[in-house]
Amino acid sequence: xxxxxxxxxxxxxxxxxxxxxxxxxxxxxxxxxxxxxxxxxxxxxxxxxxxxxxxxxxxxxxxxxxxxxxxxxxxxxxxxxxxxxxxxxxxxxxxxxxxxxx
Length: 102
What we know:
The chain has helices spanning about 55-75, 85, and strands at about 20-25, 30-35, 45-50. By secondary structure, the protein is α+β, with helices and mostly antiparallel strands. The protein has a 3-stranded antiparallel sheet with strand order 1-2-3.
C-alpha cells in the first residue's frame, strides 16, 4: 500500500543545512539541523530540531544508507571532503556524561 504524504503549511519551507548536531540518551535522540555562521567561526545556528526514539534513529540510518546507495548507483560515487570546521569542534553524540554545574 503506497504511503500518502501531506506536508503541513508550517513545514512547507525547505531549510538548507550544513551542520547536524546529534544528542542522545538511552530514551531518545535529538537531531539539530543548522548552518555554520561564516561571520563567527565555531557557531552553528540551529533552525530545526527533530526528536526520535533510538529505534527510529536506527531505521532512519538504514533509510539514509539505502538512499545514498541508490543515488550512487544512478549518479556515481559521492565525494566526501574533509569538513575542517566540524573537525575543529566536537559535534554529535555525547559519549561522556555531562559535568556537574558549579
